[in-house]
Please model this.
Amino acid sequence: MATNDDYLKMYDEFCRHDNYDEIFQTTLSKLSGELQLDSVNSCLIVGPGDGKHEVPFVMQCAKNTSEVRAVEPDHDSADSLRARLRNSLPRVDSHVVETNIQSWKRLDVPVDLVLMFHVLYYITPRERKDLFKKLHDDWLAVDGHAVVVSSSRTKCRGNANEIYERLGTPMHTWEDMEADILEAGFVKQHAQEM
Model:
């Protein structure tokens, strides 16, 4: 699905009427006490848009991060992300690459943490499997962590996922994504439903 102004306008309107930010903040507060990410020094963020949720996650849950790399295809979102990183994490060495994850080549050095928040809807199941394999085998340090946040038709309360179908980005079920993650070699350590 190509992102365009009409989609973004509709999606922004949808987001103004939900309580996702409130739910995310409550969950983030809970996770910051449960996750053990003190050893994280480097982070890769995949498809963060403007980083509205990813940057606070790093600030609260991976406080020792000194380097952030992000891959974001939308120019305006990438600019907003750069500003958010500069303002919220001024001591962190950050770099934003403007491309999609399918075209991005690789990291020079594996990272300790990979964040993928609501990005897996925009890639095909085959691309998703390839991405998880690259993450596991090449991009993530041996003792690294991957954090995936995803809505799911089977777990999300209500009928909010219908909006994504109408916007041309149907949701993949969490169970399918989780199976792909495990197949790539990851070990599930923590799950939190929002």
Summary: The chain has one domain: 5-183. The radius of gyration is 16 Å. The mean pLDDT is 82. The chain is about 40% helix and 15% strand.
